[in-house]
Amino acid sequence: MTRVKKIAVFFLIGFCFCANAQNPFKNWSEIIRKSDAAWFGSEDAKRVAENVLLYQRDIGGWPKNIQMQQELTEKQKKDLIALKKTAVETTTDNGATCQEMLFMSRMYAQIKDERYKDSFLKGLNYLLEAQYANGGWPQFFPLKKGYYTHITYNDDSMVNIMNVIKSVANETDYYSIKPSKEIVEKCKKAFDKGIDCILKTQYKQNGILTAWCAQHDEVTLKPANARAFELASLSGYESAKIVLLLMSIDKPSREIVIAVKSAVEWFEKTKITNLEEKRVLNDAGKIVEKKMIPAVNAAPIWARFMDLETNEPFFCDRDGIRKKSLDQIGAERRNGYSWYSDAPKEVLKKFPDWAVRNGTKVGATEKKNVNYITVAQDGSGDFSKIQDAVYATPAFPYEKVTIFIKNGIYNEKVRIPEWNNNVILKGESKENTIITFDDNFSKIGLGRNSTFYTYTLLVEGDDFTASNLTIKNTSGEHGQAIALSVVANHAKIINCNLLGNQDTLYLSGKDSKQYFKDCYIEGTTDFIFGGATALFENCTIHSIKSSYITAASTPEGTAFGFVFKNCKLTANPDAKDVYLGRPWRVYAKTVFINCEMGKQIKPEGWENWSKPEAEKKAFYAEYNCTGEGFQPSKRVGWSHQLSKKEASQYSIENILKDKTVNWYLN
């Protein structure tokens, strides 16, 4: 063994006593976290800080399991200086590096010694440099051969790192040292990569997301073995801190919401309530025996190691042979390792509130019936506001969730998020169940795209249904102001009033299919607009003033755009010159079939919106319409009158069909 390695081994052993008589904590990590802020300005703290600076390698990291508060001899200090350039045993295992960075931050908050700041920043750079391209972190950096190269969730190593980086990325006040904007941006990217790695390593059983292993292979991302008694498995302990990290993220993505919900379901499935751990201690307080005792309705615990396919707990000695119970392994491993944990209890405790904030579900409602929720302004329902009911619905439910809304005027801006699919908003009556708000383009004031923020009701969740409702934007004629915005697939709007002025109804979403039946839709200019494929059946389309009914932005190559069948086109008396439509984008498609058109419809029917190329690329057509406004011989030459055979292609099956058969009938 070389002299440098001998020195490293010596210091990794550490000391068990604390030289700081004024500080009651004997453990190094306790000194960092539990000492009063004022202590970090003391002479004793400065003495400890000198030790911490000596232990830090030039690469920025620290070794683990060192009681850094102990007094150092001159020879020990000299040896530590010799180790600085070696990067020997620098790690994030057992809290190393992250906890020393916290210590330096607390020191700098009291004493503006630039060495403390530089030490913290070197540590932060070490963490950033140690990250794999796939977002994970090894246990040791520079890499140490063996299982140490695996992506390491064990003992919260990677979670500790990400919490440091998250705090820096979000520019919080947790650390007293403020890195440069460049480093903050690096931390943001590093954190996002880390979250991506976490999501990709969440283990699937038969296609269902569950939890995480303590280690994952750094290349394949699959669960991996560590020490002989640490076989690849699902971890009740490590998974808890991972989920808490995911739950700490503001405005979580759909993938994060799914990951959390799936892990919570797995925790519920794997909790153990019929066993309690009994510990026997000697006079020195050391565990000399652990036993699992049968119990009734015990506080929940989780196994540290669970089979990847069956979730069955298992235990290993240093021979690596799996056993089914703790008493089947030797005393050394049985008593010297944490085989059970209650860490997921914190996840389950926090989940209901997190779920409300992030639109998944709420415990109290779920215990009743999350598939049927009542909203009533008089307090007789589950909620008095529609949005609160939406917050209480499960994410990605297997069954439809009905939100029944009693009569009343609900002055609120409502959003159905992407993860709240399968939602039904059902009003008590179309005339008296009213959702209303008054946002408009100028009021929003967010630049040229302000229109899309003006909605009264925004639907992002697929497989949505609304019925027996009035949805209204009451801003009046103050520019663009959406009443209903649907950017979801498989949306059905049945027997509803959609009221506004300019841009009343926005329909979009990639490859989205939407169905409107027996609705009353009114507006002024372009009051039905967007790029979705939408079928309107038996609807009344009412123009408040002379302008344009539709402004389609149908994507190129789409078979159908807006199709109106058996609809009635009406208008206010002063609306005398109404166009059927104009192309928001040049591939616009709009067709009227068997519709009754009032005299307000201009003879030419269609307008090119100063886009001559639309006359070749857009598709505007009619078939078998009636009324004074249907004047096919006077229509612009670039529009179409369909033949009977062509019109037969505009069946509900052809327009709305996709991989989900007859979704519009369910």
TrEMBL record:
<keyword id="KW-0732">Signal</keyword>
<dbReference type="InterPro" id="IPR011050">
    <property type="entry name" value="Pectin_lyase_fold/virulence"/>
</dbReference>
<dbReference type="InterPro" id="IPR012334">
    <property type="entry name" value="Pectin_lyas_fold"/>
</dbReference>
<dbReference type="GO" id="GO:0030599">
    <property type="term" value="F:pectinesterase activity"/>
</dbReference>
<dbReference type="InterPro" id="IPR012669">
    <property type="entry name" value="Pectate_lyase"/>
</dbReference>
<feature type="domain" description="Pectinesterase catalytic">
    <location>
        <begin position="373"/>
        <end position="657"/>
    </location>
</feature>
<feature type="active site">
    <location>
        <position position="526"/>
    </location>
</feature>
<keyword id="KW-0063">Aspartyl esterase</keyword>
<dbReference type="InterPro" id="IPR000070">
    <property type="entry name" value="Pectinesterase_cat"/>
</dbReference>
<comment type="similarity">
    <text>Belongs to the pectinesterase family.</text>
</comment>
<dbReference type="Pfam" id="PF09492">
    <property type="entry name" value="Pec_lyase"/>
</dbReference>
<feature type="signal peptide">
    <location>
        <begin position="1"/>
        <end position="21"/>
    </location>
</feature>
<keyword id="KW-0378">Hydrolase</keyword>
<comment type="pathway">
    <text>Glycan metabolism; pectin degradation; 2-dehydro-3-deoxy-D-gluconate from pectin: step 1/5.</text>
</comment>
<dbReference type="InterPro" id="IPR033131">
    <property type="entry name" value="Pectinesterase_Asp_AS"/>
</dbReference>
<protein>
    <recommendedName>
        <fullName>Pectinesterase</fullName>
        <ecNumber>3.1.1.11</ecNumber>
    </recommendedName>
</protein>
<dbReference type="InterPro" id="IPR018040">
    <property type="entry name" value="Pectinesterase_Tyr_AS"/>
</dbReference>
<dbReference type="GO" id="GO:0042545">
    <property type="term" value="P:cell wall modification"/>
</dbReference>
<dbReference type="Pfam" id="PF01095">
    <property type="entry name" value="Pectinesterase"/>
</dbReference>
<dbReference type="GO" id="GO:0045490">
    <property type="term" value="P:pectin catabolic process"/>
</dbReference>
<dbReference type="GO" id="GO:0009279">
    <property type="term" value="C:cell outer membrane"/>
</dbReference>
